[in-house]
């Protein structure tokens, strides 16, 4: 059974809080199993499709408490669903971690680019200031020479 089908079957929201998904899945599964149980008004076919009676290892009869499946198949089905939920969480976390790493690399690249731009801008400003100082010195030097000429 696919994970989407399991969520739909159990009536659970695909985007529900990860912390509560295991407990909610168990509760929803047990409620659904009880509703589908032939002794509770459900049909044998529904019960078997749910995995309580023969679908995932429970078998018909025997087990703890006797009757249809004895609950073992349901536990196996619930465990399988929980395993799928855990695997989906693990996969999602791996994708999120990879995305975070990509974002961190991009941030570092942008920070390096910005630092390089700032350095280049600072060098241009320093060069412009030095050029202005040289022109000022040259202008002052000529002016002082003119003053000296006038005085002499």
Structure overview:
The chain is mostly helical and about 150 residues long. The chain has one domain. The protein has helices at about 5-10, 20-35, 45-50, 70-150. α2 (about 20-35) packs antiparallel against α4 (about 70-150). The model is unreliable at about 50-70 (pLDDT under 50).
Looking at this protein, list some descriptive labels.
coiled coil, DnaJ_domain, mainly alpha, J domain-containing protein, 75% helix, 152 residues, single chain
Task: Explain briefly what this protein structure is.
The protein has 152 residues and is mainly alpha-helical.
- Written as H for each helix and E for each strand, in order along the chain, the element string is HHHH
Question: Main sheet, how many strands, which sense, barrel?
Answer: none
Helix and strand composition category = mainly alpha
Q: In DSSP terms, counting alpha (H) and pi (I) runs of 4 or more, how many helices?
A: 4
- Give the % helix: over 70%
Radius of gyration of CA atoms, rounded to a whole number: 38 Å
Topology, number of strands: 0
Low-confidence stretches: 52-72
Distance between the termini: 107 Å
């Amino acid at each position: 059974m696919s994970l989407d089908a399991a969520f739909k079957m159990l009536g659970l929201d695909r985007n529900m809080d990860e912390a509560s998904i295991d407990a909610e899945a168990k509760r929803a599964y047990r409620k659904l199993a009880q509703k589908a149980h032939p002794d509770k008004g459900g049909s044998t076919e529904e019960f078997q499709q749910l995995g309580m009676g023969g679908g995932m290892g429970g078998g018909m009869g025997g087990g703890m408490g006797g009757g249809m499946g004895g609950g073992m198949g349901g536990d196996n089905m619930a465990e399988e669903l929980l395993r799928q939920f855990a695997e989906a969480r693990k996969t999602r976390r791996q994708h999120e971690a990879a995305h975070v790493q990509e974002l961190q690399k991009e941030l570092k690249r942008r920070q390096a680019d910005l630092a390089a731009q700032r350095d280049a801008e600072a060098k241009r400003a320093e060069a412009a200031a030095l050029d202005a100082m040289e022109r000022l010195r040259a202008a002052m030097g000529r002016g002082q020479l003119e003053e000296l000429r006038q005085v002499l």
